[in-house]
Amino acid sequence: MPLDTSTYHLAHLRLDGRRWNELRRLHAQISTQPSADGSSYLEMGNTKVLCAVSGPAEVKGQGRREGAERDNAVVNVEVTIAGFAGVERKRRGRGDRRINEIQSVIASAMSTTLFLNLYPHSTISLNIHVLSLDGSLRAACLNAATLALIDSGISMKDYVCACTSGLSPPAPSHFTTGSDTQDPLLDLNNVEEQELPFLTVGTLGDGDRVVVLNMESRVQGGKLEGMLVTGVDGCRRIRGFLDGVVRERGAKVVAEGGGG
Question: Using one digit for the tens of pLDDT, what is the confidence trace for 16-65?
């Protein structure tokens, strides 16, 4: 279904009623799966993700590595998208190119924040299940993985937070005034991702250090800076939300322990 952009330049409101710099509703929980070493559940709008962490587990047999590689743990990521997650009832196999790319991005990003040298000869496994898909898939998976790893107690430097940023459609000719009419958009949904250029950016902590930057669209070089700044600002706000979830869970655990 094509994206109806005819009214954006009248009220500067997107189809879901958000302004250009507004995040969708965020909801998250940690310790959702008692059998896992760490787990989380995250919603970014209508994108819903479960993540479970197992490990660090010792590598045995043929999986053992030799040389310098044995001094660091290895991060393995498996992403599963439910057949009912999107509009198209489509099952994605293990060889799906998009899933493999997402798994590689998450493993690389988490390797930048985890102290892998503390867990030699071991493997850290992340199993991510996508229950509902409405845009910002990579970002949601990264944020859910961060919460699950924090819940597992594995040593890490800081939060890895991710968000998408896109570019609004150009204004119709009768709206143009000679100035730039394309605005950066924050946290795109699925319909917007289908029609507009966008990127996924992930940052480490609340600073500007970018550890993930993925873009499959073509835009003018001058537009990219605005998209990146908007995405980094969104990551900073998401970090504040994730930190609140962790602190709330920590306060609950302390209260329950104190009451026992």
Answer: 888 888 999 999 999 999 999 999 999 999 999 999 999 788 876 545 55
Strands 122-132 and 74-81, sheet pairing: parallel
The pTM is what? 0.87
The answer to whether residue 260 scores a pLDDT higher than 50 is no
Distance of alpha carbon 58 from alpha carbon 178, whole angstroms: 62
Amino acid symbol at 164: T
Strand partners of residue 41? 29, 50
DSSP track, 23-90? PPPEEEEE---TTSSEEEEEEETTEEEEEEEEEEEE--GGG---GGGGGS-EEEEEEEE-TTSSSS--
How far apart are alpha carbons 175 and 184 in whole angstroms? 18
What is the distance between the alpha carbons of residues 242 and 156, in angstroms, rounded to a whole number? 15
Which amino acid does the sequence have at 55? G
CB-count burial class (<10 Å; 0-12, 13-18, 19+) for 238: buried
For 104, the enclosing helix (H) or strand (E) is helix 97-113
Question: How do residues 39-48 score in pLDDT, each as one tens digit?
Answer: 999 999 999 9
Q: Which residues pair with 114 in a beta bridge?
A: 156
Q: What dihedral angle (degrees, nearest 10) is formed by the CA atoms of 84, 136, 110, 29?
A: -70
Averaged pLDDT, 111-117: 92
